Fold this sequence. Notes:
By secondary structure, the protein is of the alpha/beta class. Helix content is 54%, strand content 8%. It has 16 helices and five strands. The protein has helices spanning 7-44, 48-54, 63-66, 70-77, 81-97, 108-120, 125-132, 136-152, 154-157, 163-177, 237-243, 245-251, 288-314, 326-345, 353-356, 381-405; strands spanning 182-192, 211-218, 224-232, 263-265, 276-277. It has a five-stranded mixed sheet, sandwiched between helices. Strand 2 and strand 3 form a beta hairpin. Helix 1 (7-44) packs across helix 8 (136-152) and helix 6 packs across helix 8 (136-152). The longest helix is centred in the N-terminal third of the chain and has 38 residues, at 7-44. It is elongated and about 70 Å long.
Amino acid sequence: MENDMNPEVIGALLMVLNQEEEEEEQVRRTIAEIAVAELVEMEDGIGLADQQALWVPVRVFINDYHTLGDPCFKLHFRMSRGLFESLTGTLHNHLVRTGKLRRERTPLQDVVLMVLWLIATPDTFRSVALRFGVNPGTLYYFYSYIIEALRELAAEYIQWPGPEERAHIKAAFARATGFPGVIGCIDCTHVTITAPLQDPGQHINRHHQYSINVQAVVDHTLTVRQLHVGEVGSMNDNRVFRRSPLYEDLLRDQPEIISPDEHLVGDGAYTLTNFMMIPFPNNGHLTEEQLNYNRRLSQCRVRVENSFGHAKGRWRRLKFLHARNRDIVVDHITASFVLHNFLVREGEPMLEENELARPININEVPPEVEEQVVDDPDVPEDQERRQEAAEARGAEKQWFIMNLLND
C-alpha cells in the first residue's frame, strides 16, 4: 500500500495551514492597531482617526543601526553587538520552538532592535515608530510578542540557587560583610503605570501614584534570583512577600530552597523569621552590638536597591509605563528583569566583589518607611502556626548572629 500522500493533498494542506497562519497574524495585528491607538492617545493626545489620517511612512535605513560601532551601539541599545546577536539567537530559537515564528516578514534582528529601543527609553510609540520607519501598530505588534517571549524565558534566566550556588553566595556575602548565612536580599520596587481601568484605587501607592509592586530577591552579583510581579501598588511589601510562592516554600523549610543556617535579609517592613533577618528597630537606644548588626545587614541588603537602580537605569521604561493592560504590564516588567539577568549571565558584571565589601554610605540606604501590616483574612490556620514558630526561631537567630558578629 502506498504510504506517501498525494502531492496535491500535501499542497492543499499547506495552503490551508498558511491561510490559518495569515489569519492568526492578521488578528494579532488588528489587536495591536487597537491597543496602540489608545496608547498613542495617552502619550500624545492623538486619537485613532487622527493617527490614521496623519501618519506618513518615512524611509529609514535600519542597517545603519546594525553597522554602528560597539561603544555607540551599546549606548543606544544597552548591550554590545555580540550580546545583541546572542539575544536575537535565543529569541529566535524560543519563537521557533513554541511555533510563534514560522516566517520572518521582517528580519528578527530588526524587530529586536526596535523593541530594545522601546524598553530602554521613555520615548513614545509614535516617535520610535517614526525612527524605525514603521507604523505604530506594527511596532506594538513586534513589542507585544517579543516581551511575551522574554517573559516565557523567565524560568530559564531567573532561577533560585541550588545548594552549591547558595554556598557560594553565602561565602561571598560573609567575606565582604561578615554577615553569615545570606543567600539573597529581598525588597520591592514600584513601577508607575497609567491608571488601570479595573480597580484603579487599589493601585495607588503611598506616593499617591498608580503602580505595580514588584518583589525581587537578589544575590551578591545583583542577579535576580526570584521575581514576583503583579501585585497592586497599595499592597505593602510584607504582604506582597506573603502572597508570593517563595513565602510558602520558605515557610515549609524545603531543603532544596533553604537550609537552617541560611536566610534572606530585608528591611524593617518585613517580619523577622528564621528565614528572614531584618534590622533591630532603631528606637534611639540600640546597643553597639545591635548597631554593628544593623550596619552589616544593611551592607548586604542594599544590593537589592543597587539591582533595582541598574535595571531602571538601563531599561528606563520601568520608570513609567503607559499601559492599562495588566498582561502587557506583567510581560514588560518581567522582560526587563530577564534582560537584566541575561546581561549578567553573558558576562557583563553589575557589581565586583571588592565593591560588595565597600562600606555603604548613608545616602545609599533609603529611609525606612513604616507600613501598616494588614493581616490576610484568608491565611489558613496551619500557615499561621508555622509563621508564629518561624518568628520565634527568627528572634533567637537574630540574637545569635548579633553575638557572633561581636565576638
